[in-house]
Amino acid sequence: MHEFRTHTCGELRKSDVGITARLSGWIHSVRDHGGIIFIDLRDHYGKTQVVIDPTKDFYQELERWRVETVVCFTGKVVARTPETVNPKIATGEIELVADEMTVLGETEQLPFLVAKDEDAPEALRLKYRFLDLRRDELHNHIVMRAKLIEALRRKMWDLGFTEYQTPILTSSSPEGARDYLVPSRVHPGKFYALPQAPQQFKQLLMVAGFDRYFQIAPCFRDEDARADRSPGEFYQLDIEMSYATQDDIFAILEDLLTDIFPKFTSKQISPAPFPRIPFRESMERFGTDKPDLRNPLEMIDVTDIFKDSGFQAFSKTVAAGGVVKAIKVSGIAKADNPQPRRFYDEMIAFAQECGAKGMAYIIWSAGETKSPIVKFLTGNELPSLAEKAGIQDGDVLFFLADKRALVNSVGGKVIGELGRRLGLIDPNVFKFCWIVDFPMFETDEETGALIFCHNPFSMPQGGMKAVETQNPLDIVAYQYDIVCNGIELSSGAIRNHQPELMYKLFEMCGYSREVVDDKFGGMIRAFKLGAPPHGGIAPGVDRMAMLLADAPNIREVIAFPFNQQAEDLMMNAPAAVDMKQLRELRVIPVPQELKYEETFKKLLAEAERIRAAEAAAAAMNASAAPEQN
RNA sequence: GGGGGCGUAGCUCAACUGGUUAGAGUGCCACCCUGUCACGGUGGAUGUUGCGGGUUCGAAUCCCGUCGCUCUCGCCA
């Protein structure tokens, strides 16, 4: 008989009754009746009830029947009587009557219980992550994630893609997020960078003729955390394809997502093709570039209606170049169940917290309009609004008036808040959309200079001709995001593979040819030696897993995540290292309490002093012993 | 770097406007119990109220500082 087990804890069935089996696992729970003891033995596969007669010799061996002890039981598989069958577990029709027991791993008192889902503080859960991972919910999340990755790989191969690996130690690139740097021992003072994404490598693979690339790629960005953004490292399903148009890439992703998502969720998936919303339209309608399409609310531009209105708060805003936008909420003012006055007050307070000066509203109810502003609307405003918004009885319009950017930003937040408060967001669907036509450039708010809006390697729509003839701020790129339920799953682009066009775009942002050659030399050289048109996308694996697991934050789908401060509380990373290691790398840590600039100058001065002393000593030696030569 | 929230027993939480010995559930320890499956019962131990300072006759409670966790803005091509 195998030393540890003949079956797993989820395996035995009625058909196994009569055999002798050996099971190993954790003590999940103990029910000690004095004359008989029941133990639920748990492993990765399930739970099995073990029955113990306390008169057996082995009973004395285990001092405490403490949960989470790892034990091995050998005994006979016995059918349970009908009234003692437990339908809640797969092995509930049988139980193991123990003849022998071996303790394989004892436990001290647990920092939190595995068998109960009580909320332990996250710091504790992260420190004892291996315990937390034993718990059903997290355990299942990690298994689901593994299966998701397997399914993604399989689908990508089915679609004709091949997985290629790319370096983890590479060079720092000037654009984008903060890099994680690794000091070079061989080249003191120089650094590798961990890749923020295999962006340049995958493009070079296209130039190298591999045609269809994918990789479950680790990406490293030294940026602060969010609920849907783990600091440090994360994974992307990185995709790149040659001779591809934007439509080709969309078709691949729509195929992938509508195939994969239903395998892991019972929620309804929006059918392909997914809606395509130009970036500017999304900002105007939803106030964000990642709209949650489950929320039916959106902004309507009603600036025209208020241009000459007697309500001066609005008409003056319009005169000053601002806009007035309305958000229609249907049916919340019906006579049988109207929202109370307090609801409107709270929404106005919310809008003000978001930066609005105020928020007006009009209620259409029982043939009348109720509103603090309606007495100022002496012109044709009310019927115009009703017509433009398609108002029916019980509907409400909320109004925001200010500069366009502010109205959009506040409006987006108000839409989200209204959706949440009124329960308008269906939790049982996944709604995808594409955000397309991102601007190539924007202006730096501080300097007013032209900067890249997204990815400097994206192809501007219209190519060189557009770049030469259009206002730079009007140029849009073949640059797109895919958004699911308000979460950005991925960015992608058709790449700019034309060196001259790339030089031109960088020049517009103030980078000379030399700088481009220096920073992106590998890629520019490649593009000068026969580059196919290509493009790609890179959906976030962690975010997909998070959506599918319905997890409140991304740490719930990562086995060993960092906390918000980018620390691994279990492994104690980051950590100080030996002086020997630092010496090899020529790295001197400067304690945080010391002022960096001053310390740096002192160190430089000290280095200079040592160098001068050594040079002086060498000169002395040379003059003292000239006869040696 | 900025803003919000939280911090009381191993864990989850309570403790009124500042007022007696800081409580409950769970876990832990001991004992009882032959059909439970979150078993049940009896008893017991467990606290620098995150830390430091202040106000007060008196502080878990109020004030200041600090640390930790979390959400968020900046940031994330």
Structure, explained:
The chain contains 17 helices and 24 strands. The chain folds into 5 domains: 92 residues, Nucleic acid-binding proteins (OB fold (Dihydrolipoamide Acetyltransferase, E2P)); 201 residues, BirA Bifunctional Protein, domain 2 (2-Layer Sandwich); 131 residues, Gyrase A, domain 2 (2-Layer Sandwich); 70 residues, no CATH class; 33 residues. It is of the alpha+beta class and 629 residues long. The longest helix has 29 residues. Helix 3 packs antiparallel against helix 5, helix 3 crosses helix 15 and helix 4 packs parallel to helix 14. The strands form 6 sheets. An 8-stranded mixed β-sheet has the order 6-9-10-24-23-22-19-12, sandwiched between helices. It binds one RNA strand of 77 nucleotides through strand 1, strand 2, strand 3 and helix 1.
Short structural description:
With 629 residues, the chain is an alpha+beta fold. The protein contains 17 helices and 24 strands. The chain is globular and about 95 Å long.
What class do helices, strands and sheet pairing give? alpha+beta
| CATH hierarchy class name of the largest domain | Alpha Beta
- Proportion in β-strands: 15-25%
Mean pLDDT: 90
| Integer tally of domains | 5
General shape: globular
CATH arch. level architecture of the largest domain: 2-Layer Sandwich
- Count of helix runs: 17
The CATH superfamily name of the largest domain is Bira Bifunctional Protein, Domain 2
CATH topology of the largest domain: BirA Bifunctional Protein, domain 2
Number of strands: 24
- The percentage helix is 25-40%
